[in-house]
Amino acid sequence: YKFATTMARLGQIGNLPKALVRYRQHATSLTHSRQMLMTERVEGIVNEQLEEFGIRPSKRELEIHQHVGRLLLQSSEGLLSECENWLQKLSNHNDLVQRFDHQSFRKIISKEWFELCKHGAPAGLATWHHYWRSNLSDAWRPSIWQCLKFLVMCLLKHRREGGDVPKVQSTQES
Questions:
Q1: What secondary structure letter does DSSP report for 162?
Q2: b/e per residue, 55-81, with b = 16+ CB within 10 A?
Q3: Are 124 and 160 contacting, i.e. CB atoms less than 8 angstroms apart?
Q4: Cα–Cα distance between 117 and 132 in angstroms, integer?
Q5: N or C: which end of the chain has fewer CB within 10 A?
Q6: 137 CB contacts (<8 Å, ≥6 apart)?
Q7: Within its chain, how far is the Cα of 121 from the centroid?
Q8: Other CB atoms within 10 A of residue 89 CB
């Protein structure tokens, strides 16, 4: 992780569509045996990056930032609002310091916002409305299939809790 973030400072990096390397994880690997140490190191790198960006995050903001990238926390409407505020803070700060291309950064933020809301879909239709009301959804639009899947996930939760699902009106007279 540290290597990738250092390389990103030196030049342009990207993801290839095809995996070039595969590796296996096992119980004695560093990922498993020293998970606390690995987590602390990643948090330190993230904190360092944010400070280089010009933001001194609080402990809660670091938790939110980690959640945004890995969907670690139990989703709720309150958490979704915290994530929205954090993403907005990052976007506003980038507008101020102009470290990253404005459109590219906004697009990434917008995609992350969609993923967070999709993860929060079990909260029901409130999440659907929250997503579309946020200005974070403006820079990137999900495909029609992504929207439908997200809506269905929200409706299923809403329906399980006894909420009324809006009825589709027929245009033909019966």
A1: T
A2: bebeeebebbbbbbeeeeeebeeebbe
A3: no
A4: 10
A5: C
A6: 110, 113, 114, 131
A7: 13
A8: 14
